Amino acid sequence: xxxxxxxxxxxxxxxPFVKFPIRLYRGNPCYVPPLVLDEVAxxxxxxxxxxxxxxxxCFMAYRDGKPAGRIAAIINRQVNERTGHLDARFGFFDFxxxxxxxxxxxxxxxxxxxxxxxxxxxxxxxxxxxxxEGLLTFGFDELGTMATNYNFxxxxxxxxxxxxxxxxxWLEFVMDVPDAIPEVMxxxxxxxxxxxxxxxxxxxxxKAIKRDYGRALFELINETYDQLYGYSPLTDRxxxxxxxxxxxxxxxxxxxxxxxxxxxxxxxxxxMPSLSRGLQRSRGRLFPTGWFPLLRALxxxxxxxxxxxxxxxxxxxxxxxxxxxxxxxxxxYQKRGFRWAESNPELxxxxxxxxxxxxxxxxxxxxxxxxxxxL
Length: 375
Known about the structure:
Layout (H helix, E strand, L loop, with lengths): L1 E6 L3 H14 L11 H7 L11 E10 L2 E11 H7 L3 E9 L3 H17 L4 E4 L11 E4 L15 H8 L3 E12 L6 H14 L2 E3 L4 H20 L10 H11 L8 E5 L5 E9 L2 H7 L8 H9 L4 E9 L8 H16 L3 E4 L2 E2 L3 H4 L7 E13 L1
Parallel strand pairs: 4-5, 11-12
Antiparallel strand pairs: 1-2, 2-3, 3-4, 5-14, 6-14, 7-12, 7-13, 7-14, 8-9, 9-10, 10-11
Helix pairs in contact: 1-2, 6-11, 7-8, 9-10
């Protein structure tokens, strides 16, 4: 017997929802759990400022009384207003290999969306682009990252079987960290500096970078990604939250800011040591001892760096500013002993972003998709 229940947005009810995939993927060498308390906060209306323009309902499926799957149905009114669509989203979607379970979960999300007046549903997506998105369709034997979903191969069969069609696709790449900065990259970076009067700004004080460029950094993200698939511009309240919550976690050696003659921000590259192994060891918990493997991943020996974000002001895109970022960051990667760098998901149609990896020995190691269905 399959039963689907709506989940109240309270911590005690959200904890089983958040922990379900950690149990589902127990022992899987490629699955990377989220930080449980961060995931609970994302789903809590009183903690996540995205609820200023979103609404959501979480559901869990039970098979013979035991947890068998989960899904969140989301409406992002900001994106719908920008696109003129009446789209709901589904995300946080995990389930055992049982068509009855996945169909019941998708059916609950679809019915909720219909009752809200939506005409289509699309996913997997989160509240905004800073949440995990996309269903993994290639790269199941690759270690995941803290910023991306992992799922079993059977997920796509279930989604297609429920009447969904592919809507967009993202690619991910892993690059070898070179022993030296590629000569062509050095040449391009130096030309760009002279031609446009640009320079790299580095900080050692997190309070100072917050004060000088915290808001400008997230405003640049809004400019850079404004026209991308399903983008939800960050609001003032979101920007303030991210400044306070995330900038203090950065290793400033692995952050590169590019500014013009007037000290205005025109480019940013943010990377951090991979937390994948640390999160696996901690099983998504900070306490009582989960913080230790995460601290070791951040400060100790680590062979992998995650390229969390690269943003270039639109008027400087395609002019070689990316070369300046990597001219600054590669020596830091070498110093820290990183052997590989991983990109975040990039839209498959965005060839200009993928062009930047031509300087490196790289391979496309993962692919993921979002799917759409009329209601």
